[in-house]
Design goal:
By secondary structure, the protein is mostly helical. 79% of the residues lie in helices and 0% in strands. Helix 1 crosses helix 6 (103-116), helix 6 crosses helix 7 (120-142) and helix 8 packs antiparallel against helix 9 (177-193).
């Protein structure tokens, strides 16, 4: 019988082991056995806590997504509620936060995106994340723009954030995070200040 209070510790160990394993081996070669060995636990613990590899990948992505939400929320908490452009910048900067830019996290994101096309559980999680980004951007733009323009601006900025992040993840040694943030900020500002 596991010790009381060990579950959160074990879950964290297994999520961290998953991140490192995906970074080093890729998702395909990241097996339950390898994750368990890296975490220093038995393979049965993964099935017990997560139901298997897919459940562990989903939990790992939920962990990464919670870090993303916290990165955005901490920036937005410092802003005046009326500062639309500031809130858009907070969303942009949160998506390029250091928690989203480690090599292990970037490789896990890439593996997640590829896997989400084939696994319903992961596809649902990706849709929730995508809708959250679009909804938050659309809400901010709509405070200054008519709804049809706000929707277009939100789609464009979401695609720009994802695209800039993806290009950086594919070439991490040449990823200029400041330039990516600057480009996305300029786009957001142009959308807000463009005359209808």
């Amino acid at each position: 019988m596991p010790k009381v209070g060990m579950e959160p510790i074990r879950r964290k160990q297994l999520i961290e082991a998953t991140l490192v394993s995906i970074e080093e081996l890729g998702l395909h070669d990241t097996t339950i056995i390898r994750i368990a060995q890296r975490a220093g636990v038995s393979a049965g613990i993964i099935s017990h806590y997560f139901g298997g590899k897919d459940g562990l990948l989903e939990a790992t992505m939920r962990h990464i997504l919670s870090q993303l939400r916290a990165a955005v929320a901490s920036r937005r908490a410092l802003l005046d509620v009326e500062d639309v452009e500031g809130h858009l910048v907070a969303i942009i900067e949160g998506n390029f936060d250091r928690t989203q830019l480690s090599e292990s996290v970037m490789k896990t994101w890439l593996a997640f995106w590829a896997s989400s096309m084939h696994r319903p559980q992961l596809k649902r999680l990706q849709r929730v994340n995508d809708r959250r980004l679009y909804s938050n951007l659309c809400h901010q733009f709509n405070r200054e723009l008519p709804l049809d323009q706000a929707r277009d601006a939100a789609r464009g900025l979401a695609a720009m954030i994802d695209g800039l992040w993806l290009r950086g993840a594919l070439m991490p040694e040449r990823f200029d995070v400041d330039a990516a943030v600057r480009i996305a900020r300029r786009y957001a500002g142009d959308c807000l200040h463009r005359k209808p």
